[in-house]
Design brief:
Bound molecules: iron/sulfur cluster
Strand order of the largest sheet: 9-10-11-14-13-12-15-16
Number of strands: 17
Shape: globular
Structural class: alpha+beta
Radius of gyration: 33 Å
Distance between the termini: 77 Å
Helix content: 40-55%
Largest sheet: 8 strands, antiparallel
Strand content: 5-15%
Number of helices: 28
Amino acid sequence: MRSWSAHVLLWFCLLSLASLPSATMANGQDDQAAPSDTISGMIQQLFPKATRIEPKQQDYPVYPVYQLNELLGYAYESSDISDLPGFSGRPIRLLIGLSATGRFTGIHILEHHEPVFLHGLGPEPLYQFIGQYQGRSLTEHIVIDSHKVGDAATDGVVYFDGVSKATVSVIIINDTVLSSALKVARHKLEGFAQAAAAQPIMDKFEPLNWQQLLDRGYVGHWRLELADAERSLGTDLGSYPSLREAEPGEAFTELWYAYINAPSIGRNLLGDDGFARLQQRLKPGQQVLAVMSNGLFPHVPEDFKPGTVPGRLALQQSQLAVEMRDMDVLDRNIQLVADGIPAFDQANLFQVGGNAGFNPGADAALILNMELPRNHLMIDRAHFEVPVTLPAELFEQLTVEDATPRAPLWVGLWQDRWLSITLVSISLILLTILFTWQRFFTRFPRAVHGFRWGFLAFTVGYLGFYAQGQLSVVNIYTLLLNIYDGFNIGIFLLDPVIFILWTYTFVSLFIWGRGLFCGWLCPFGALQEMASWLAKRLGIRQRRIAEPLHRKLILIKYPLLIGLLGTAFYSLTLAEQLAEVEPFKTSITLYFYRSWPFVLYAVALLAAGMFVHKFYCRYLCPLGAGLAIIGKLRRLNMLDRVDLCGSPCQLCKRRCEINAIRNDGAIDYDECIQCLECVVILRDDEQCVDSISQRKREQRAARQSTLLATDASRHSRQTDPI
Ligand code: SF4
Ligand code: SF4
């Protein structure tokens, strides 16, 4: 593509951005128009016994619902209470019914733009997910864990079936439902109001040993004797094969808890260094509760997965379940080191707060849920409440305005995906090293080829199928809408892998251009390369499109990009549907498990790629087009060329499978996927025509100088006097 036309496209995109407000505003007005009779009908479904639905309240945006004069509960629109954006960048609008006793009566979806539910999995899994809230109480501890759904009868803990492939959207919906319901409960429901928040006094510290911490109540202690456990379970402990025999004097459960953020507790328990290291890891407002236990039934089982929500233990305050999640930080760097501290069977630092928030100045309770199988058919259950009262002298009361906000949602998501983040980061570092020193590495063709195929396998298998790191033109919509809405980086941080890849790709565009992503980091691009490799193994002849036609066809992807972006300004929903021109969702997100037209389309593109190398990338991909446009601003043209390239030598051009080398030998960086093949040829003395002819010239010159030297010596021997 000629440079003037690329600049026109670049300007078009920038102008489109500038025109975004008016277009999106029109769309936004549509979104607001929910007819009141529609809402009334939905509320009636949420409260079938309702005889009266009051208008939205002035003091708090909820609809009170009555049966005659009895208050049944409240209905409210989540977007009036919580502005948490969805994965698409737009809030998920829900109509939620909450009974006067704090139970969900049901949820209706008013509007959402979550791509995976719109056009990927379809709406059914979303309906099934939100259907799980009906009848659940705000006092219950809701854990999204599909593997444990059968355990839902455990007291106080409810396991929800998540939606694989839509993990982030489901977490956002759960957060939206719970955080908005808790706010409504606190404002409107009796018994749910929370005491004024408190925070630890950070300059209050006194060195104390373990016994002193216990004596002062800085570390709470609770013990459940064997006999009490038997009484609650209603049978002898010998009936439970999973329990070992108790040592003399051993408790069924002996548990200690401590609020780590208070320096008099945290510094004494973790030591000054450990406390400082923990502080560095904490986000503003993040609160930490240490729980340690010994005995036959510790607070977490031996196979407890670090970093997750405990199933046995829950925290409650003001009748509300308070989120607690293991921080997975107790290691060599951070340990429990107080003088005289005993050994524990289990010890964890839990991040507490989440949706409900946690007020250390108010009473709370740890709920120990006991579940013991007698045999395959019988499971006995009991639960115990451990009162949690923290020492008032270590805290100061806060006004509501002073209260530190809780850690944002993305923080937990990054903690959960630390392994993916680490692997993706390492792979990007390796790629950066290769590209930075490519002049050196391309001298070793076998190593470069091996690394490239290994990397492509990683891109398809791990980055694509496992970590769901396929960038898409839909991400560009999200960015544009987000810029219009005032830019909230929190939306992008919700998916750490996509965030890291986008950040890296964006920066790399200004250094190396589009090829680094398209040649190495795009899962569908890598899948096409594998299809092409397979085709060659099957003996399928690779077609080369004639140069003039190829030059015209590569322009198709640009109008596609412009059309999609233009549509996004007009209607996000339509743009998301049109984005199905990308086969990414079908192939990478849904593993080809989808209705047949989508599968047929994706397979057809891969099949086309078996005849024409990376057919989709070259001619159709709107994302590739967008990257090529921004890539025009790159700083480096890193692929070396020599004088003979193109005139007369055409070897690299013939070997460039994507046809990104022009007849004159110049590289078309808008098309090049930086596979490095042409540079490998250039550095190879056996392949590069320039090197071969130079070597021949050198050999000829060497032969001639040898000849001359021989002649000279013969001549000198002939003329030497005897
Ligand atoms: S052109 Fe599109 S499909 Fe091909 S590698 Fe680039 S982004 Fe991926
Ligand atoms: S062979 Fe060279 S020009 Fe062709 S895609 Fe690979 S790096 Fe780019």
